[in-house]
Amino acid sequence: MLQTVLEPQTAEKAALFRETYLAAYRFMLLARLLDDKFAALWRSGRIHGGVFLGRGQEALSAATGISLKKGDVFAPLIRDAAGRLAFGETVLDAARTYLGSARGPMGGRDGNVHRGKPKEGYLPMISHLGAMISVVNGILLARRFKNHAGTVGAASIGDGATSTGAFHEALNQAAVEKLPLVLVVANNHYAYSTPISRQFACRDLADKAAGYGVEVDSMDGTDLNACLETVGQAVDRARAGRGPQMVVATLLRLCGHGEHDDAGYIDPELKKSPVGRDCQKVAEDYLIRQKWADPATLATWRTEAVHKIEEAIAQVQREPGPDPFTEEWRAISTQRLNEGHE
Amino acid sequence: MSITYLEAIREAQAQALRDDPRVFIYGQDVGPFGGAHKATKNLAKEFPGRVLDSPISEDAIVGLAVGAAIEGMRPIVEMQFADFSTVGFNQIVNQAATLFWRTNVPCPVTVRLPFGGTSGSGPFHSQCMETVYAHYPGLIVMTPATVEDAYSMLLEAVAIDDPVIFCEHKFLYYHLKAEKLPSEALPVGKARIVREGRDMTIVTYSAMLHEALEAANELTPEGWEVEVVDLRSVKPIDTDTVMASVARTGRLLCVGEAWPWGGVTAEIIARVSSEGYGLLDAPPQRLNAKDTPVPYHPNLWAAHRPTARAITAAARKLLRL
Ligand SMILES: Cc1ncc(C[n+]2csc(CCOP(=O)(O)OP(=O)(O)O)c2C)c(N)n1
Ligand SMILES: [Mg+2]
Question: How many angstroms separate the Cα of A88 from the Cα of each of A71, A143, B100?
Fold first, then answer.
């Protein structure tokens, strides 16, 4: 290989990119192992309700979380363990929500992937797909009212949810208001069992953006490199005032819709095709090729991540669950207006 | 000088915008045009940049309001007609209404619903949605029946830290006038005894209050003294005031313009029957609209919803039981 002498500025940039890549990879790794742990806990009956994994989508998710800064807004969905961690969520809070600790951000009132801290710009998804995008818009509009410039809001969405009315309304709304929204579309080819051929009839999901007057870019969602670059640039454009941005990643869900689902409906040809690559493996190969890490280092990182997870789970398992007797059972904040039926 | 119910709503919004920089208004045609009902007339001019036209996207309108509320604003959103709030229903009942309970972050969003029947409006511009929203935990549902309440309750709606469904009756917009805006008000959550009586209690709210008062007056020459209670808000319901009234009169008739299945009138009767069974001298009764979509033609419409005449008839029957 040719040795190029880099300009000082490009060298700096390259160093920064390497740093970001390494950090993103470690969030991917942590997320994958955390997801695996939740799946194991679910199989042994220790998690109430479902478990939803992001296997195969960690590169895109981590790239999204890591492209955001403190003070930005993030509305993740069910396959965003990596992005959540990269945006600042702790393993502890993730575990608390899955295991129903009273000390978690949702205090047992909501669980699994429905977690967040709205005041920190980390929005807790409601189940209804598409519904979080306009909420991000509202935060961004409020910041404009307050002359608080320079922040962006990212929202995740799947191929299936691009068919919701809420998606359409919110993207159009962001375009009309020229809000710094970054809509990250994960085209993983399925919405639960429904293949994309039954989901939309446009040639490519990116085509949808034109209808709203929104800038769009696409990427190979299995390649962390591409994800960091494409999502990062979209975030930069939004931050610079270019209005809402959409990015579309092509990839494959490498797990069931939830852990209850064996995903027998996924086309084996797709699994064998490049979209079926495991982003984790792709990133590891790249790290080794670049000599940014050797197999021993990767193994150390993995061990560190496992320890972190085990420690958090052990701690959460000692924490109390919510107590129905001390629960206030009050859905509004204005105490005097609470009906408080028995 | 006199002021209409509609002007009171406009004035309350102007006051809220003046008092609190966190307030803004968002909805279809609310900007320079002043709203389909003129409830935001001149506000865009008076408060530049704070009264914004929205696309026809009820879901995104409410979603945006929730986001803005999280960020510390106090949005007022207008649904052009209450009927269209069904398209924003998800954001109201699942996003706005659950936020505080799930996260301890309050959600001070006011959703204005111009609602209820007016002659010729038909199935999709006449609906009463209060029952539907009252069913969901996490929402406060206001149903002002007077000019004074329209003003003071809307101001309180904006000041409250929770999502408020503000049901403003379109029939009252121009029909009701007051001399001036109130300087004092009964707090939200308290019902008002609008007319005292000893023979029977009519519990009602919004436009039906005026039909009920007319009915009560009609019964006076016959020697009946009918008490009329205006609930003012249907969530929360001021059960204490209702119960105290029934304790005095022994007879209860609930009147609502909404459809009969379930709902506010059924709720009142359930509460009085279970908590105040011994207070009743006769089975509690209720009167609602018929269980069909709201008809277009005035002949049908007048028979579809409770009117003073229908209330009088129902009251007479109950008084003889
Ligand atoms: C409005 C709405 N309808 C249905 C569902 C049930 N549901 C949950 S996830 C899902 C599939 C989502 O597919 P996609 O948007 O492609 O995301 P992915 O699961 O592939 O990440 C469905 C149908 C829902 N959560 N919300
Ligand atoms: Mg999908």
Answer: 11, 21, 22
**Domain B3-178 = CATH 3.10.180.10:** no
Domain assignments of chain A as residue spans, ordered by start: 18-318
Give the SS3 label for residue B167.
Answer: strand
Task: For B76, list phi and psi in degrees, rounded to 5.
Answer: -115, 120
Nearest to B116, CA basis, from B206, B242, B42? B206
Please state the ipTM of this predicted complex.
0.97
* Cis peptide bond prior to B144, omega within 30° of 0: no
The SS3 assignment for B146 reads coil
For A18-318, which CATH superfamily applies? Thiamin diphosphate (ThDP)-binding fold, Pyr/PP domains (3.40.50.970)
Mean pLDDT of B217-225: 98
Quickly name the fold that domain B192-320 has.
Answer: Rossmann fold (3.40.50)
The minimum CA-CA distance between B144 and chain A, rounded to whole Å, is: 16
**Ligand lying nearest the CA atom of residue A250:** 2
Looking at this protein, which amino acid is placed at residue B82? A
Q: How far is CA A21 from the centre of its chain?
A: 16
Contact, B258 vs B128, CB < 8 A? Answer: yes
Does B95 sit within 8 Å of A331, measured CB to CB?
A: no
The type of residue at B94 is: N
Residue with tokens 């009902």: B37
Q: Which one, of B246, B223, B117, lies nearest residue B170 by Cα?
A: B117
Distances (CA, A) of B141 to B112, B138, B193: 10, 10, 19
Note if B125 is an active site residue. Answer: yes
User: How many A-B residue pairs are in contact by the CB < 8 A criterion?
Assistant: 143
N-to-C CA span, chain A? 75
Identify the closest residue of chain A to B51 by CA–CA distance: A145
pLDDT (tens place) for every residue of chain A, 342 residues total: 444 555 667 899 999 999 999 999 999 999 999 999 999 999 999 999 999 999 999 999 999 999 999 999 999 999 999 999 999 999 999 999 999 999 999 999 999 999 999 999 999 999 999 999 999 999 999 999 999 989 999 999 999 999 999 999 999 999 999 999 999 999 999 999 999 999 999 999 999 999 999 999 999 999 999 999 999 999 999 999 999 999 999 999 999 999 999 999 999 999 999 999 999 999 999 999 999 999 999 999 999 999 999 999 999 999 999 999 999 999 999 999 998 754
Q: Measured between CA atoms, how close is A162 to chain B, in angstroms?
A: 14
pLDDT at A6: 57
Nearest CA in chain A to B138: A331
Quote the Cα angle for B10-B17-B117, to 5°: 30
CB within 8 Å of chain A, chain B residues 191-230: none
Here the tokens at position A306 are 């496992």
Q: What six digits make up the tokens of B273?
A: 């029957």
Show me where the domains of chain B are located.
3-178, 192-320
